[in-house]
Amino acid sequence: MAGTVADGPKVAVARCPRIWSDETGVDPQVLAEVIDHAMMWFVGADSAEKAWRSLFGSDERIGLKPNGLGGIELSTSEALSAYVVDRLTGIGVKRENIIAWEQNAGFIANCGIPVDEPPWGIQAVITGDALGQRVTHGTVDQRLTSVVTDRVDAIVNLPILKDHAMSGVTLSMKNHYGTVEAPSALHGNFRDHLADLASVPAIRDKTRLILCDMTHCVVDGGPMGSPHFFPGAIMVASDMAAHDALGTAILEEERKERNMPSLAQVGKPPTFLAAAQERGVGIADLAEVNAKLLEYA
Q1: Quick one: which of 26, 157, 248, 261 has the fewest CB in 10 Å?
Q2: Burial zone of 14 (CB within 10 Å; 0-12 exposed, 13-18 middle, 19+ buried)
Q3: How would you classify the pairing of strands 168-170 and 160-164?
């Protein structure tokens, strides 16, 4: 793992081979145990409950942003969202104060959260059905979902580790293309569009936790398709730039292991990472990140 700076932003990759199996997919119990341990390291607590209490208040409204663009096989696992809801309600957050949102009904259903019958007593919202104020910020001139601008106090970002045919990778920052009215308008100049979107105060300042689903991933041919890389892991962070930089490094290492060219060599370097650091989103230089690999049998 790159980076061991003690006072840098923390990013943990918690890995366990028992999280995923080809027969049954994600094991919810193993997933919960692994994330609990990672959360304890992440915040420096001696219990998972204390870790969650240190990040969220029981009276807060919490938004969950899964990623369902890749289809059922390549979307944020239902088990991960269920885990988050369980831990939030366990510290007293009301179920009706938890709101999941995605770009459209199909995407959020792919994550196991159908908008017409959301599970666990939470709310489910489609971005276009609940648009808030227009935000002009750098190259971004869009209406965002009111979930982000007005209805939640904190965001839990639940991306997938995937490569992307145009931006290089799609992780926590690009997951917010499902937060805006017209994501197609932000294709092209990914360096500035992604960095500017991530630095919108309603997104940057409300991002409290990132839990990246690394149970089933793609390192080439993304952002859609069938998963072919199964790390059996979850990445825990709160700094979007540090999270995406480490995720990119993991993806690049896997490409190297498969004798594949780097993202830069195929013409899609993730230049938005350095731009995000320039805009104050976080730290993208892995030499300044406190990264840790937690492995469990």
Answers
A1: 261
A2: buried
A3: antiparallel
Domain boundaries along the sequence of the chain:
10-295
Q: Token pair of 135, please?
A: 């935000």
- Name the β-bridge partners of 291: 11
Cβ 144 vs Cβ 206: under 8 Å: no
Q: In the structure encoding, which two tokens stand for residue 139, read together?
A: 């190259």
How far from the centroid of its chain's Cα atoms is residue 265's Cα? 26
Which residues, listed in sequence order, are joined to residue 292 by a DSSP beta bridge? Answer: 12
Query: Tokens 């029981």 sit at which residue?
Result: 58
Tokens 């982000």 sit on residue: 148
**Max CA-CA distance within the chain?**
50
For residues 97 and 62, is the Cβ–Cβ distance under 8 A? Answer: yes
Amino acid at 233: A
- Distance separating alpha carbons of residues 3 and 1, to the nearest angstrom: 7
Specify which residues 212 forms β-bridges with: 235
Q: How many CA atoms lie within 13 A of 130 on its CB side?
A: 23
Task: Report the SS3 class of residue 62.
Answer: strand
The architecture of the domain spanning 10-295 is 3-Layer(aba) Sandwich (3.40)
Q: Which tens digits make up the pLDDT trace of 184-224?
A: 999 989 999 999 999 999 999 999 999 999 999 999 999 99
